[in-house]
Specification:
Elements lengths: L13 H19 L4 E2 L5 E3 H8 L4 H4 L4 E2 L2 H8 L10 E3 L4 H10 L10 E10 L11 E10 L4 H18 L6 E7 L6 H14 L6 H9 L10 H8 L10 H16 L5 E2 L11 E9 L8 E7 L3 H4 L7 E7 H10 L12 E5 L5 H13 L4 E3 L6 H10 L4 E5 L1 H6 L1 E6 L5 E5 L3 H5 L5
Parallel strand pairs: 1-5, 7-8, 12-13, 12-14
Antiparallel strand pairs: 2-4, 3-4, 5-6, 6-11, 7-9, 9-10, 10-11, 14-15, 15-16
The protein binds histidyl-adenosine monophosphate.
The site of histidyl-adenosine monophosphate has 27 residues, from β6, β10, β11 and α12.
């Protein structure tokens, strides 16, 4: 059998690759208005970065990372040897840790400097069980703002995310914006103990995984899909009842700014997100149509301790990422059709083989002038050249035959209206750009 793409990955064929490019351009345009500029970081990082940044006990790090080893190191391991920490690499499961690593490494936020507002777009890798809306390689567009603690940064990022979703065409009525605060190192430890004590009281009703979670990271139990655990966690103590005064004020200001901007949200005290770096504000956007259980199209939050976790100086941060494939599914559920990758402005058709050299030269001239131009390379009949032109989405077809070449003219047909005009070969390039064509 022919080799297939690995499970949980998919090809972006031309129409979709075009849409992905436009999607990224729209993001750059919208986020650019808020001061975000593009960065690109490697798709592989030291495994240690994710262990320290995202958290060893998270599903993402403990179960879902793809580890990459050079052939030499793999051989060494298989022979019972060891591999240096810096040679242990993983494919990035998300973008935040890498961007924060780059900010620290290149000192992009020197003390007292304006915040660094960075955006990125590209593939992420998680070895999850593939299902609808859940892949092993998927694309994210994300932003990270480092160096500012103010609630206005949180609010503007959330507003910007909603504006982007609306701009690409996801109906507002099909989106739910969930918001919560995770507290900080002052208030969260006591809250975590409260949840642990509550879980201990309900140990008999919880699944095995949640019993382990109760020890290691009890807040993860809020994400458990087991109906019994979900019912227990429904009545668990709520973080928003246990925030310290600073976190309470920060959260209230974020919510106030969202209200002021007319952005509807729902508070969800059970929203804990799957990554350990979050402090204070967290948020997620879910869609009601087209996605089933994997319905989060984007999410993020504040991570004021992450820069220190990866070895930098204390630098507050906030960001989000959105999943391109899930957005596409939400758009398709809303009735969007992919745009067709238009590959051709002009197709030059040959009446017979004697004019091939002239056609070749003409095609080249048009391309040099900036037009997408194509001709047949397989000796097709004139009729099937028209079919090919149609398949390529050609806007126009120039028909070249011995008579045309002798007269120095070419017939140009508009494939939309079927109107034909006779144009001088020497004028074709300039006519292509004119209203006539
Ligand atoms: P996340 O919630 O893990 O956050 O992922 C963000 C989005 O990526 C999700 O809402 C979803 O749309 C998409 N996504 C995640 N996993 C998959 C998958 N297996 N298949 C398809 N799509 C997926 C983060 O990654 C954080 N780095 C966000 C962030 C940035 N927080 C602060 N800054």
């Amino acid at each position: 059998m022919a080799i297939q793409a690995p499970e949980g990955t998919r090809d972006l064929l031309p129409d979709e690759a075009l849409f992905w490019t436009r999607f990224k351009e729209t993001a750059a345009e919208v986020f650019g208005r808020y001061g975000y500029v593009l960065v690109e970081t490697p798709v592989i990082e030291q495994t240690e970065l994710f262990v320290r940044g995202i958290g060893e006990a998270t599903d993402v790090v403990s179960k879902e990372m793809f580890t990459a080893l050079s052939g030499e190191n793999l051989k060494r391991l298989l022979e019972g040897g060891t591999v240096k920490a810096k040679s242990r690499l993983s494919l990035r499961p998300e973008g935040t840790a890498g961007v924060v690593r780059a900010v620290v490494q290149h000192d992009l936020v020197p003390q007292g400097a304006a915040p660094a507002k960075l955006m990125y777009a590209g593939p992420m890798f998680r070895a999850e069980r593939p299902q609808k809306g859940r892949q092993r390689q998927f694309n994210q567009v994300g932003v990270e703002c480092l160096g500012a603690e103010a609630p206005s940064i949180d609010a503007e990022a959330i507003i910007m995310l909603m504006r982007f979703f609306e701009k690409v065409g996801i109906p507002r009525a099909s989106m739910r914006l969930l918001v919560n605060s995770m507290g900080c190192e002052t208030c969260r430890p006591a809250y975590r103990d409260l949840v642990r004590a509550y879980m201990d009281e309900h140990a008999g009703e919880l699944c095995e995984t949640c019993l382990t979670r109760a020890e290691v990271n009890p807040l993860r139990a809020f994400d458990c899909k087991n109906p019994g655990c979900a019912a227990v966690m429904e009545d668990a103590p709520k973080i928003t009842d246990h925030l310290c005064d600073d976190c309470k004020a920060h959260y209230a200001e974020v919510l106030g700014l969202l209200e002021g901007a007319g952005v509807a949200y729902e508070e969800d005290p059970k929203l804990v997100r799957g990554l350990d770096y979050y402090t204070r504000t967290v948020f997620e956007v879910q869609v009601t149509d087209g996605l089933g259980s994997q319905n989060a199209i984007g999410g993020g939050g504040r991570y004021d301790k992450l820069a220190e976790e990866v070895g930098g100086r204390s630098t507050p941060g906030l960001g989000f990422a959105l999943g391109y494939e899930r957005c596409l599914m939400a758009l398709e559920a809303a009735g969007m059709e992919l745009p067709r990758a238009q590959r051709c402005d002009l197709f030059v058709a040959c009446v017979d083989d004697t004019v091939r050299a002239q056609a070749f030269a003409l095609v080249q001239e048009c391309r040099d002038a900036g037009y997408r131009c194509e001709m047949d390379h397989q000796g097709r009949s004139l009729k099937s050249q028209f079919k090919l032109a149609d398949k390529l989405g050609a806007a126009r077809v120039a028909v070249l035959g011995p008579d045309e070449v002798a007269a120095g003219k070419v017939t140009v047909r508009d494939m939309g209206t079927h109107d034909e005009v006779l144009v001088s070969i020497t004028d074709l390039v300039s006519e292509l750009g004119s209203a006539l064509l």
